[in-house]
Amino acid sequence: MSEAHIVVKDVNKVFSTPGRDVVALKDINLEVPRGQFVCLLGPSGCGKSTLLNAIAGFALPSSGTIFADGQLVTAPGPERGMVFQEYALFPWMTVEDNVAFGLEIKNQPKAQIRATVDKLLQMLSLQDFRSRYPKDLSGGMRQRVAIARVLALDSPIMLMDEPFGALDALTRRNLQDELLRLWAELKKTIIFVTHSIEEAIYLADRIVVMTYRPGTIKKDILVDLPRLRDPAAAEFNALKRELGQLVMEEQQRHHNDELRMAAVD
Amino acid sequence: MARIDWREIGVGLVVPAVVILLWHMAAHLQWVNAQVLPSPGAVVAKWVEYLLPLQPYDAAAGSKLAWVFSGELVQDSLGSLYRVVVGFAVGAGLALPIGLAMGASKHAYAWLNPLVQLLRPIPPIAYIPLSILWFGLGNPPAIFLIALGAFFPVLMNTVAGVRHVDGIYLRAARNLGASGLTMFVRVILPAAVPYILSGVRIGIGTAFIVVIVAEMIAVQNGLGFRITEAREYFWSDKIIAGMLTIGVIGLAIDIAVNKLNNHLLRWHRGLEN
C-alpha cells in the first residue's frame, strides 16, 4: 500500500449558469489507499456526487487532476465501474445480458463470459432471475444486478452514487451486508456517496464529510469500529452524534441558501 | 394467461346486435329506399357472392387453390394488401435509416430537418395529381403515395426516439466501455424501439387509408376501386360489403402490429399487466 489507489489533487469544479457561477468543488485533495471503503457524506448540493462523477470521468474537473490506478482520468471507463442510484439497467436486456454486456464490449470469448456471469449471478443470489427483464424485478434485485454488472468488469475500483437511496430500510440493510461481504472477498477500493450518516458509519473505513457550496472537505475521519458493526452500540452512536452535528451545520447552510434564493426571485 | 371471458364477449355483442336489428327493421319496414340502404341480409348475400369464385371450377384452367382465391373480393383484398405492404416497406425502409441518422447526428438533423418540416404537413392525398403525372395509373402511383404516407410517421418517431434516449443509459454504457457502433446498436437503437414502433403503427394506419384513396383514383382494382365502381351501378349492397371488408382487414392489420409490438417490447415497463 505504498501508493494511493485514487489521488484527487487540487480539484475545482465550477458550473457556469447564466447569471452566476456555482462553485461545486473547491480545492479538493484526497488520497485513497487500495482496498479502502470511503464514504462521501453530506447534504444535497455539497458536491459529493460531483466529485464522484469527476472520478468516474463523466464530468471532468474545471482544474486539478484525478489519478485512478495510476492513470489520469480523462473519460469514463470500465476500470472504474459505477453503480447508480437509479440502477441504470438496460431494460431491453435480461438480467444475464445486462451482466454480460461489459464483457461483450471487451470481446471476451463466449464461454468465458458465460462462466463469469454464472459465478456473479450465484454470488448475488440472482440465478433464478437470469432470464427476467429489469421491469419484473424489485428495487433491491435491480441493484443487485447493477452491482453484478460492475463486478463483471473486474475493475479494482467501484464507484457508488447513493446506490441504496431508493430502497426500503430492510432491503437496504440486506444489500449493505451483501456489499460488505463482496468488498471483503474481492478487495475493491470503493467510493460510496450517501447522505445517510448511519449508512456511512455502517459501511466505511473512512468518512469524508463535505461542506455545502463551495464543496470542500470539512472532516476526514477513519472509522475503526470492528465489523459487522452494531448500529445500537455506544461507539456507533457517539460517532453518529458527532457526524450528525457536522452534517446538520451544512444542511442548515443549504436551507438558508434556499431561503435566500427564494427571496431574490 | 388470457382466459376467454364469455360474459365480456356477450356484453360486447349487445350494441352491435341492436344496431344490426335497427338496420334490418329500417330496411325491412321500408323506412328507407333499399337502393340507399340495403338490408343486412342483402349485404351478407352480396358479400358471399363477391367472395366466391365467378366461374365454376375448371381443372383445365388451373389448380383448385387458385380457383378458390379467384373471387373478386379475394383478388381485391390481395391487391390492396400488396400495395400496403410494398408501399409501407419502401416508406419505412427509407424513413428508418434517415431517421436514425437525423437522430444520431446533429449535422444530419440541421441539414434535413427544415425540408422535412416543410414537406410533412402536406397530406399524402395532396400528392395524387403529381403522382399520376409522374407515374401514370396503376400500382406505381399508389405505392408512391402509400410510401409517402408511411414515411413521415416512421421518420418523425425514429428521430424523436433516438434523440430522447435517457442519458442514464448512455452514461451506464460509457461506464461499461461502450462507444461507437456498439453504443448505437446495443443501447441507442433498442432504447428508441418503443418510439419507432409507435411510428410504425401510425405509418401502417396511414398506409391503409392512403391505399383506399389511391385505388379510388389511380388504380383499376383493389377494395377502394371496387366500392367506387359499385357506386356507378348504384350497388349499395356491394359498397357496404366492400367497406366491411376494409374494416375487417384494417382491424386484422392493427391486431397483427399490436402483437408484434407486444413481442418486441416485452421488456418495456408500459406493457406490464
Tell the overall outline of chain A: globular
How much helicity do the residues of chain B have? Answer: over 70%
**Any idea what the radius of gyration of chain B is?**
23 Å
Q: According to CATH, what is the class of the domain at 6-79 and 155-264 in chain A?
A: Alpha Beta
Alpha carbon gyration radius of chain A: 19 Å
Largest sheet of chain B: none
Percentage beta strand of chain B: under 5%
What is the helix/strand order of chain B? HHHHHHHHHHH
Strands of chain B, total number:
0
Low-confidence stretches of chain A: none
Give the oligomeric state: heterodimer
Distance between the termini of chain B: 10 Å
CATH class of chain B: Mainly Alpha
**Contiguous uncertain segments of 5+ residues of chain B:** none
Q: How many separate domains make up the residues of chain B?
A: 1
Average pLDDT across residues of chain B? 92
SSE succession of chain A: EEEHEEEHHHEHEHEEH
The chain pair forming the largest interface, with residue counts per chain, is: A-B, 28 and 21 residues
User: Level of helix content of chain A?
Assistant: 25-40%
Give an overview of the whole structure.
The complex is a heterodimer of chains A (265) and B (273). With 265 residues, chain A is of the alpha/beta class. Chain A has helices at 48-56, 95-105, 110-123, 139-152, 169-186, 197-203, 234-264, and strands at 6-17, 20-32, 37-41, 63-68, 71-72, 80-83, 157-161, 189-194, 206-210, 217-222. Helices cover 39% and strands 24% of the residues of chain A. With 273 residues, chain B is mostly helical. Chain B has a single domain (55-271), classed as MetI-like (MetI-like fold). In chain B, α4 (72-104) crosses α5 (106-119) and α7 packs antiparallel against α9. Chain A binds chain B through residues 56, 58, 75-78, 80-82, 84, 86, 88-94, 101-102, 105-106, 133-136, 149, 153, and chain B through 168-169, 171-178, 182, 186-187, 190-191, 193, 266-269, 272.
